[in-house]
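USER: My hope is that you can spare some time for a protein that puzzles me. I am handing you a single protein, as its sequence and its fold in token form. Walk me, if you will, through where the backbone shape changes along the chain. The protein I mean follows directly.
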Amino acid sequence: MRQSILIVRQDRTGRRLLGRILRGEGYEVREAANALEAMTQALCGSRPVDLLLTDAGLPGIDGWKLAEKLRQAFPATRVVCLGGETEVPEPAGLECRVLPPAVEPGELLAVVRRALDSAARKAPASAGQVPEDGPAGLKSA
């Protein structure tokens, strides 16, 4: 079974480019423009998200908050953030790999592969359940 990657970037061109690169390597790729759209896709999908590839500085709800919410539903999901040192800081306790926004395809693929290969997947019975505040909890102010 192909591994599932959810790409979340506001920039449509960048999102589609990343999607093409990852699909070319055989990954199942879903795309979203913001956190609410991403959670909706993740929770309504036919299978869990294996890896979240997100911008750290999304509008409204940042990529870190999205990662925390998504991992409430799917604890085994790996996270790779695209962002620089000027982006929103990574919260404590969230295992994540950070890449520069303008990453080279080879570096992206290597980091994605390492993230997916890391740690044995041990999803608890509750995996796939909607977080307590659900996707609605992601609505920006």
